[in-house]
Design brief:
By secondary structure, the chain is of the alpha+beta class. Helices cover 39% and strands 21% of the residues. It has 13 helices and 13 strands. Helix 1 packs across helix 13 and helix 4 (77-85) packs antiparallel against helix 5. It is globular. Belongs to the D-alanine--D-alanine ligase family.
């Protein structure tokens, strides 16, 4: 049964932070606040800065919604601090957040359970330099082939990510990636349809919301395509045959469970021309902006965004602090 929030309960939404995704996080946070207030929940918005811990000690909320993207909201550190403060929050715990945040580690777990994910290699900047860039890149192309997807091992919103179709473009892609993270994830590029499946659990087990199909104008779902109006078209639900849609949802649920997540997540996949899904990454703090995928999935599922969030925060408050 969904734990509802009483009128005397108070929710704190954390947004902003100091990551590259600060602006997106603030937009997510404001939308979450508006949705919860629309559902009758007393809600405030606050940045995760030096004033946060004194505020939590003086006026602890009944539950926290983490609308922070990037490392602050997704690497488990903030969740660990909230645990120390005895404050419950929506979403997975610190340990599982750390696992999902590190893409190579998460992909290793998925692969160990036969959940499909593209072949990859994780390359720290130091090893890249020590072993010789040219030799390493030649071996990557020989092993994984072309095209390739290069992206930060830890990061989101498409920052530092690029598709490499020509070996000559790979060095520049690596340099761009290393600007956002000290480790690059280089994986085999799978052509197909970009799909996002949002997972929610309101107390009766994780459920997949309708898949959302992503069609970027330039063919790559990068930062600009995600957050600039007119650069991407979304179809919710996705234009997939029923059996493929069912397979996509099943794989997304399997990924959510494999990583030990709770409450909500978003699984990003590619569906290849044969209809087979491949998991790219799993997000524990999905975007909540006007162009974000989880709210689109909620709407496609015929659910009320504010009531869904109210159910999640009520559930977190009822669960209590770690």
């Amino acid at each position: 049964m969904i734990q509802s929030m009483g009128t005397d309960h108070h929710v704190l939404v954390l947004a902003g932070g100091l990551s590259y995704e600060r602006d997106v996080s603030l937009r997510s946070g404001r939308r979450v606040v508006d949705a919860l207030r629309g559902a009758g929940v007393d809600t405030d918005l606050r940045d995760a800065d030096a004033t946060l811990l004194p505020h939590l000690a003086a006026d602890p909320p009944d539950a926290v919604v983490i609308a922070l993207h990037g490392a602050t909201g997704e690497d488990g550190s903030l969740r660990g601090v909230l645990d120390l403060c005895g404050v419950p929050y929506v979403g997975c715990d610190a340990q599982t957040s750390r696992l999902a945040w590190d893409k190579p580690s998460a992909k290793s777990v998925l692969r160990s359970l036969d959940i499909p994910t593209p072949d990859w290699v994780a390359l720290p900047h130091d090893r890249f330099s020590e072993l010789g860039a040219v030799a390493v890149l030649d071996r990557i192309v020989s092993r994984l082939g072309l095209p390739l997807m290069v992206k930060p091992a830890q990061g989101g919103s498409g920052l530092g990510a690029s598709v490499v179709r020509d070996a000559a473009a790979l060095p520049a892609a690596m340099v761009s990636c290393f600007a956002y993270d000290s480790t690059a994830l280089v994986e085999r590029y799978v052509a197909g349809t970009d799909i996002a499946v949002s997972i929610v659990d309101l107390g009766s087990g994780p459920q997949a919301l309708p898949p959302v199909e992503i069609v970027p104008v330039n063919g790559v779902y990068d930062y600009a395509a995600r957050y600039t109006a007119g650069l991407t078209t979304w179809h919710a639900p996705a234009r997939l045959p029923a059996d493929v849609s069912e397979a996509v949802s099943s794989v997304a649920l399997a990924a959510h469970r494999a990583l030990g997540l709770r409450d909500l997540s978003r699984v990003d996949l590619i569906v290849d021309p044969s209809g087979a899904p491949h998991v790219l990454e799993v997000n524990v703090s999905p975007g909540m902006t006007e162009t974000s995928l989880l709210p689109l999935a909620v709407q496609a599922g015929g659910l009320d965004f504010g009531k869904l969030l109210a159910g999640l925060v009520g559930q977190a408050a009822g669960r209590g602090a770690a």
